[in-house]
Records
---
Amino acid sequence: MPYNFFKDFKKACKKEPEKVFPHKKALKDADKLFNLRTKSELLSFITSNGLEELEFETKKEWEKNPKKSNPMLVYSYEFRSMCKLGYIAIMRNEEYGNWIIKSFHLSNRSNNMMNIAFQKAKFIKK
């Protein structure tokens, strides 16, 4: 697992939040699925170890990069939060020194039966 990449990302979330940019869809999904309503809440969640059992998935070149002269790699990870299995994909724009949260949603491998049971029992919100 590229620990240093995520470690550097997490450090930027805490010390340089102005250099971390969640995509609009990632922020919308963070709100809808994890009740993280703002960029500030999302970054705080990340820095306070909300991404439990973080597991590296893949590293690949960003296919939809509009600026081919500045190639960027996408690092994706799965994590747990409460009874949800989540997915985060992040990139580093070396040209500008910025971080981008490309995706933040439930994992495609997620088994949400426990989540549904907790919702029915009213332990967590839908």
---
Amino acid sequence: MILRLIKINMKKTFLITTSLLITGIFTGWLYGTSIINSMMKGEIGISTFVFLPSKNILDTYILLNSRNELNRLEGYYSYKESGLNDHEFLIKRYKIEKSVLIRKTIIWILESSGNDTEKLDIYKKLYEASPASLKKYLQKKINNYDLIKE
């Protein structure tokens, strides 16, 4: 009888422990993603520095906000490698950037994720904020999607 109770309690303990572990991992992942995204948008709080999962994220933030164009370019490559992909953030950065090279890099990052409909919408949003040389580049991409649909 006692052995039976111990087996039942061990099963319950195992199930509770496993569910708590999975819940903790999922919650930590969500919170970590939230911290990183808010930091990239410039919303830095004390919790960002306390719970920051990687020094690389902080380095990326510093590079993206550098005055040096090459450092910012390196920051965008680092951003892509980090796995972050906030389209609205990148579109805002595209509008801020003046360098054609950096703007093309942002387009490359944006088109590396999402489906065709999202990409077409992104190209149209970027088209409005682009200089003439990039408008031609984006128009070719938009036309390619129109040809695919036909």
---
Amino acid sequence: MRRGQRRAVLYGAGTLVAAALLFAGFGITVAPDPATRLNGATLHAEAGQFDAALDIVALVLREHPGDLDALIYRATFLGMARRYDEALRALADALGAAGEEPEIARNLQMDRAALLLEMGRTDQFRAARAELAAAGADHRVLVLDGLEASRRGDPAAATAAYARALDAKPDDPAIRARLWNACMEQGKAAVARRRFADAQAAFDRARELFPQVAAAHLRAAETRLALADAPGAIEVLRHLSPRTPGIAPLVFRAATVLLESGRTVEAIEALGGAYASDPAAVKSLFETERAWDALRGAAEVQAVFAEVERNHGGGLTRAH
């Protein structure tokens, strides 16, 4: 779907405006162009409505036989629906239509190999990989190596392969997304082995790849807490909205770690930040965590709670 994705980005807001005018009854009677319709099909597919998405693609192909974007979308949606044999045939159709566009053809060859791997056809996958490599080893072969490593449960090898692929093709968002996923899996595997420093490095790399995604920040904060680095955990969490789901218990844990290490002033400050994120959850944690027994009725703690309530919330505080 890579070519179609790029076209969808180019059409972006303009096609959405055109569609809004069309369906709002502003007198526009020209049918949407293929890109507009395919954008709509993507929305259906992302919602799991594959039949609706494929119906739109079929309409585009009736009106524009051989449209390469539509052929690519059809193969992609069939693969997403796990209709693998049909997806393979659709990829063959797309490859036939991409004869004069070698870059797109190689992308489709990579997609075909990935689909074979997903289907468990290992020998056919390796033959397809070898064919692609013979055409000139590049980032696509590295992506396939990453997929194979992921499938055999080796996230570290997958991360290494995707990282090399991204070095070769730094502007490819699909590779970046695959590397993000591999880093997250590598971090989780390291946590399971209690190798928290390795996990922290993997989650931090995921944070760098997509700073706007909360999951990597939350996992990176968890690993810092496992290493008793409460200030580090709070610093990571400062990159997120205070209302991010799951953030309040982590800030509370950080406050508790600070308290247990004798940093009472910073602990109370962090407790206020946690309370601002989710007052009900943090009050419950505060009432049951024995580390806070000596401070449960302390004036300075109650003052922090009262200040947060006066301000109707607030952001995370910084621990030094």
---
Amino acid sequence: MKHQLKYSRQQLYQSCLLSMCVHIAAIPRLSYISHENSWDKCNYSFQDKFSTDGTISFDTINDVIVGAFRNNTSVRMNEYPTKIAMDLFAEANDDVRVIAQNETLMYLRMSFEHKKGFIFANKSDIIVPVVTTALWSEGDKIFSSDNESVFLENGGEYINKICVSKDELIEYLTDDYELTDDEISFAEELFLIKISEKVQLVRTSFSDFINFQSEGYEEFISALLNFGIEVV
């Protein structure tokens, strides 16, 4: 049985965009965080305080969102590797299931030691997607195979944190990243560029506060390119 969650498709999409913009803005100063969040093609992947990993895929042509999350403290982790992650999308339509199979779940695979036959037989690793909850969109509504409380317990808490008003999200991320005023302004500018579907960013928009010689500058440029923004 599927359950409607309290978020909307547009709210979730824009919250993920803004979260990634803030992450990119902080990379030059905090180069060690560059791997924690990423944007690859249509997929936004994140780590939330080391307890939850997740990937949210966006089909912007058909306005479809598919997300899968892995809370590493969830009891559902004990069901793997025999559990099939795609079962969490059993109530979703075919378009969602294709995106989940080909995009979202590809980022959440784990390796398990597998014993072949008897205890003394050779061992090999099996690699399967491992997730503890999931969501998808139908129109502007967001659904999950879990009700809201179960969704939050098993990895959805990150979505609950970011699906708030823009001002609330900026405040939360400012505390999380200890953002400077310049970084906040740049993140908001980057967000507007992305929403408008532009693909270029003028270097002078950040040259006053980002050191081109800093350790995180290359990671910053790489993150922008993966986000679909070219610096000119």
